[in-house]
């Protein structure tokens, strides 16, 4: 083997200090001469790549810090090595040469390996022996290649540094060499294969740098070393037998890499800087999506047991430069983790070599798995572990960081600890898990001053909560749950029973067919995808049992609409279900269930009523328990999310399988039809607006069977259901909510990753997490009497008035006609065709609404005797939402009405009054009345209230005319029960009373601008009666109209008598959230069309006129609001024009980024159809300026109202209150309404006492204007200057005194 290969191998081993850290035992023949092929016209190429040459008897060291002069010397040596490698590659890629001259590497006595080169006068190249010559007839001199020309240029740049190199070399040679105490080679090394000269050279080099060159991954067996040597000799013989030139595809990439390294070294020599440093992970530079895709693919391969496939894939990505670029350390760590499980320390060493070859640093995970492997290996030397720890320290990492920051699976943590105990028997990790405290001004006192905090307990014993945990765990382990439908009460007919049996038989048959088809398709995939570097679906189809995939497909058929489903939606649903089951199985495999149970059982002590009081928040207590029970796997698994495209591709594959495989007999319902098999699903195309989209539609025969069967069971994914135990508290951005089901803390657009990146960097999320935990800890139960009434109407004929959709039997009949009928005129055919289209649309809408109500009511009915919880997450602005999608308190009037607090509290002296006021609020009457006026009105209609409670469907039914009829009826029942109790003040009420903000968006604007007029209009200022901003704007618009009418404007005269609160309300409400004049005009146009008396020919002109007046009226009433809104809009426009998306921090420290970018199209290819995705969040695209500027004001205000809600939630929790919210509508018990109102006002004042706009200005300036302002007059320079001036010029504020909010009764009411 050529000594040139030694240099190449050394280069692969390490880039930090190349020859200091490697000592390679190499066998070579004929006194180190290069083996040259005989009888051919080319130099034999050494075909083995550096990865294949990695010997198991290799020890590479861990350098300590040295002075910069030595580093410069080593970098100079690296130049020599790289040049020699390039010369060798030149000889490899040149096929036809006349005289093949190969330069030798001479091992000098100084211990430094030096490469003979033209620029080194001390080294004389030798000719190849005669026997080694190869001559090509007619061959011409090869032309210098591009990379050789580059090398020549680099040489010229290096000449001026020759004296530096020679001086440093002289200084080094004068230093005495350290005495070696032993060889770094392993037991069993075949010494005979090493030449005497090379052996002495290597020994001298090792003796000189004994401590610095100790290897980490020295293998423990001589068998491995001998085997590697034998393989190397065998490969050498094989190459002699086949002397043909073999040009590798990877060679140009290696040359390119060498050139790049050479250039980097030159720059380092030029600057005479610190020792060579490896670049950080290039994850932020390269495409995050590619990294995510590679990670999920490798993890899928490993989970499915395809270790060799994963290994080959990583090697194929690593070898070529263009495929290597997206790789980061975490991707290499996946394979390091695999080899650690197997105790293969030599394999880990090879991956470390690949890491350094890729210019990456090992991170905590890399060293963690290396230590784990050492712990698993009983023969591992303590010296090896010490070397690894020394290298960690060299890289600025500590073992304590490994235990506190790394994610462990199974027994990984115990193995790392075992390795540590080998070298330090008394070692115990010092975990620094910060769980309490927050430096944010808004909540600093909340976390530091807890003497008065009274955290509420749940009305359950500890044993009850532990039992509930077991039930919830079993549901999530199953991933699905089957419940009874509320339609089950209908009597079963003979035809219904026959159809149900027929459907059951068909499903059993389809299951067998799909199982067989899936297995066959997997075999085909496994055999056809042979190229290692290509990503494919095969690993994703091996994550679950085949039966699990089939069950998911069968379930999707049962839930499919008769009108069909978009292929994209259906595929996404299927892919997500596979991912959810995969995550649950991962947690099983990682053995976290036992630990989760132990920690949760201890956690219930904080919540249960029969345990001691704790002064900790749920997150703090959970983190403390995790710290105490740190052994075993980490609960936060660190799984990689799948890309949206991967989910879609897997889903479309499953859809294609169903469409091609599932069939039904054509005569199954009617024997008169042909007895032939027909597909039960059809792939077709339909137009949505101007876009053609793929649709999957069930065959009418299948639809008819399903409708006539009227099945009584519904199957849902487990995460659709409320939880039967309190949610796991959010303790980090990746762990919380459900026990096993993966849940994202922040809801984002499919595929957007910038939000997660910001969250991972954020260190101030504790208040946000604690508020989410408080909302999730509220226990609920079902209002059973009201639910029964709603179900009875649902099973009758529904009611549009009461928001209960009618059954599909009430849908309009589909008109049937023959387009070829000669008796029909063209206009009649067109009319019938329009009717058919409208009937189909109406049927589809009715089906959607009916199924939504069916799911909602069926889930509620299933939970009727249960206590349950809603885990919470948030959107990118911080607005909170319950995780279960169908049934929650953010739903419609029906859903809110059947939900009550599980914990009851006595009404107290004012509770009954609050119930009555709440009822009047729900009716929508008396909005301009004072609270006392509303209470008096409620007392005057007590007879109607009692009648509604006693005879809801047969009485005077006045409640049906309320704005929120079902909640009003529920409130009537609660009031009736309270007044009929012996002592209403002691009546235990479970009913939630709401306090709603008065145009909350404008309230925040008025507070930001300290606008007195605006603050008065939205009830920030104390008033005798509530101020109605909508009526105020309508009055202002009427004054403008009267003035214009007097001056003779026709449209102003036409509008006389038609301007009302209702006409302007929607526009006023939404203008604060960014509605444009165009959108406002459409809103007003819709309201005008609803007025029968208004002349329709003037609608267009009138809406144009009125929207202008509404905006003018708002500008006059809310001067500060408009200035702030304009400042936010213009700031976002200029930021976006500069190429950035708008980011900011909420006052609670939550990072927010607007993901809107220019849309690009991505095609997901599949067998059934290519799906065109619109990607509007790609960080490589420029920001969408229009969306950025229009969205910033409303999103900023939303982030403020979410901050106010979170502050209120935290302080209500510390006061022992039950609190939930629907954005700017806060709920609590009637007993605690006054306390909640006090907290709500205090926290609003607390929030707006912060310099919010100044802090925003400071943040934006630091982020977007922190660079030096370049001189020039170009457009970009002017925009940069303008942006800086605009951001620095914060809008002026008025004189409104924020403290007055605390006295305002109608701020929230």
Structure write-up:
- It is built from 46 helices and 28 strands.
- It has about 1300 residues and is mostly helical.
- The strands form 12 sheets. The chain has a 3-stranded antiparallel beta sheet. It has a 3-stranded mixed beta sheet with strand order 14-17-18.
- A hairpin with a 6-residue loop joins strand 25 and strand 26 (about 1170-1175).
- The radius of gyration is 37 Å and the shape is globular.
- Mean pLDDT is about 80; it is low at about 1-65, about 90-145, about 170-215 and about 220-285.
- It is an enzyme of class 2 (transferase).
- Its main location: mitochondrion.
Short description:
This protein is mostly helical and 1309 residues long. It has 46 helices and 28 strands.
Straight-line N-to-C gap: 86 Å
Structural class: mainly alpha
Which of globular, elongated, flat, extended, rod-shaped describes the shape? globular
Radius of gyration: 37 Å
Strand order of the largest sheet: 6-10-9
Number of helical runs?
Answer: 46
Mean pLDDT: 79
β-strand number: 28
In what range is the share of β-strand residues? 5-15%
Helicity level, as a percent range? 40-55%
Task: Characterize the main sheet.
Answer: 3 strands, antiparallel
This entry's quaternary arrangement is single chain
Poorly predicted regions are 1-67, 90-144, 172-215, 218-286
InterPro entries: DNA-dir_Rpol_C_phage-type, DNA-dir_Rpol_phage-type, DNA/RNA_pol_sf, PPR_rpt, RNA_POL_N_sf, RPOL_N, TPR-like_helical_dom_sf
Catalytic activity: RNA(n) + a ribonucleoside 5'-triphosphate = RNA(n+1) + diphosphate
Family: Belongs to the phage and mitochondrial RNA polymerase family.
Protein name: DNA-directed RNA polymerase
